[in-house]
Amino acid sequence: MKKLILGTAALALTASMAFAGGHAKTVRMGTEGAYPPYNFINDKGEVDGFERELGDELCRRAELTCEWVKNDWDSIIPNLVSGNYDTIIAGMSITAERDEVIDFTQDYFPPTSSAYVGAADGANWETGVVSAQTNTIQAGHIASSGATLVEFATPEETVAAVRNGEADAVFADRDYLVPLVEESGGALVFIGPEVPLGGGVGMGLRESDTELRDKFDAAITAMKGDGSLNALLIKWFGEGTQTY
Amino acid sequence: MFAFCEDPSVLDTLSWFACYLTNGVHMLFYASFLKVLLLLAITAPVALAFGFAGAMAARSRLAPVSLLGKTYIAVVRGVPDIAFFLFFVIALDQAFEYARHRILCPDWTDPIRQGADFIVCQQAKLPLGTAPQWVHQTYAFFIAVITFSIVFGAFAANVLYGGMRAVPRAQLETAEAYGMSPRQTFWRILVPQMWVYALPGLSNLWMVLIKATPLLFLLGIEDIVYWARELGGTKTSRFSDYPHGDWRMWYFLALLIFYLAMTKVSEVSLERLMRRLSHGQATTGGEAQRRAAA
Questions:
Q1: Closest approach of chain B CAs to the CA of A218, in angstroms?
Q2: Fewer CB within 10 A of the terminal residue: chain A, N end or C end?
Q3: How high is the ipTM of this complex?
Q4: How far, in Å, CA of B8 to CA of B16, rounded?
Q5: Contact, A114 vs A132, CB < 8 A?
Q6: Is A209 inside any structural domain?
Q7: Any idea what the CATH number is for the domain that residue A145 is in?
């Protein structure tokens, strides 16, 4: 009799687990993995960075099972809408144009400044050749400024273009450029003004996925409320970064 | 990997590289070489099968079958590879999901296309939303193999079609005179002899296929090109234990050597295969072999 009860209990347990497993949908988090400190591949080959830590925490709070997926920046929106993953969490600024195609959560990173970096102090960022990553707000800004825009598929290439003289300056998120300038040994310097761009960084979702968006929105609100988001921002972007 | 890799910043050059080249992310890089070899190993025979079927269809006496074979060859050969790769992969994936959606979720009323979104029910997703990442990667790889096979199959079909027509008419007439049926003539006389005519074209295709494998990267598969670009990129000490400058040149140099080695090995083996196939054939190559032996 004891065995029977134990057996039934075990069966019930596995059945309920299987049931729960059948219901829990894995949320696939799409990111680029080439934009430190937002997201990058660490020495172990895993996705790491501010957004990795933030995303894991958001999933924990929203009680979701999440999995990280890498995708090229160029095709990151098309692959979201065709359903290859469920969110974009890749340092994507909230803009009106993107908002027409996909939906955004509230921002988890305040509107930041973008900056110019050149090979020398006098580099011509105003009317010279300026590199930026394709499909970014920075590329849009340069296109409408007096400078000549050269676009590259990855952030790495935009900086390499300045190093090898192809471009006079690179225009990108200031936070991405800071570690590169610091370790360049004077080969790269900040020039020109800092330009505030975009409406902050948010998580991108399909327009039809309102339920998931609301869950993440609530988790972000909670993290803003208890200060844990600010702690993460300071950890990854240093003291003096903008917080909520 | 090694015990002394705890703090790479104090190591001398040699052990630094020993640690650097064996860290986790480099292991993924080495695994991606296997991925490329696997793609070649699967795609080549499948593409050859596609090509054989295409060539057989093209020379069929039934007009619709022949038309189908010829259309396949003409359309796929005419469309640029990149356009085909970018369009076809998404279309194929959506076609699979659409078919499954129709079968698995008949009561679904919402439209499948909502603006830019392509939405099918959860059960119809391929792979399922709950599937682990490796399933997704295998699926993407599978789609890539199909795409490669269709593209290279069309070229192979054209080559084989030419090979079949190059077999001397006298050989086939003799077979008929011996009372062989068309089917027997095809399999026993035509097919064994056509390879020697098709091989130069096929070997060309194989070389192009080797060189085309970086297209995997376009299909979102993390192949050797992806990892070379990722690993070669500048690493700062804040985010890596192994900071270095822009080393992409060296990584791409390694890829260049890999591809050159691949093509060299292929050249040697194809040359051997050609010698074997020429044996006893009524071609200049076969005749030369006969004279040398006599």
A1: 23
A2: N
A3: 0.76
A4: 6
A5: no
A6: yes
A7: 3.40.190.10
Does any domain span residue A11?
no
Judge if A180 and A222 occupy the same domain: no
Sign of CA dihedral B96, B99, B104, B110: positive
CA A209/CA B214 separation, integer angstroms: 34
**Looking at the structure, do residues A101 and A136 belong to the same domain, yes or no?**
no
Are the beta carbons of A171 and A138 closer than 8 angstroms? yes
Give contacts of B101 with chain A, Cβ < 8 Å: none
User: Are the C-beta atoms of residues A6 and A18 closer than 8 Å to each other?
Assistant: no
How would you write chain B as a 3-class SS string? CCHHHCCHHHCCHHHHHHHHCCCHHHHHHHHHHHHHHHHHHHHHHHHHHHHHHHHHHHCCCCHHHHHHHHHHHHHHHHCCHHHHHHHHHHHHHHHHHHHHHHHHCCCCCCCCEECCEECCCHHHCCCCCCCCHHHHHHHHHHHHHHHHHHHHHHHHHHHHHHHHHHCCHHHHHHHHHCCCCHHHHHHHHHHHHHHHHHHHHHHHHHHHHHHHHHHHHHHCCCCHHHHHHHHHCCECCCCCCCCECCCHHHHHHHHHHHHHHHHHHHHHHHHHHHHHHHCCCCCHHHHHHHHHHC
A 108-147 residues inside an 8 A Cβ radius of B: none
| Residue A19 within a domain | no
Answer yes or no: do A95 and A216 share one domain: yes
Among candidates A33, A69, A160 on the partner chain, residue whose Cβ is nearest the Cβ of B133 = A69
- What's the total number of domains in chain A? 2
Which of B261, B276, B277 lies closest to B33 in space, CA to CA? B261
A166 & A204 share domain: no
Which chain A residues contact residue B230 at CB under 8 A?
33-34, 41
| Domain encompassing residue A182 | 113-196
CATH code of the domain in which B72 resides: 1.10.3720.10
Total domain count for chain B? Answer: 1
Per-residue pLDDT of chain A (244 residues; tens, 9 = 90+): 455 555 544 544 444 444 444 445 789 999 999 888 999 999 888 999 999 999 999 999 999 999 999 888 888 998 888 788 899 999 999 988 899 999 999 999 988 789 999 988 888 888 999 999 998 999 999 999 889 999 998 899 999 999 989 999 999 999 899 989 988 888 899 998 888 888 889 999 999 889 999 999 999 999 999 999 999 999 998 887 888 8
Containing domain of residue B285, as a range?
A: 3-293
Exposed (0-12), middle (13-18) or buried (19+): which is B183, by Cβ within 10 Å? exposed
The answer to whether A45 contacts B222, with C-beta atoms less than 8 Å apart, is no
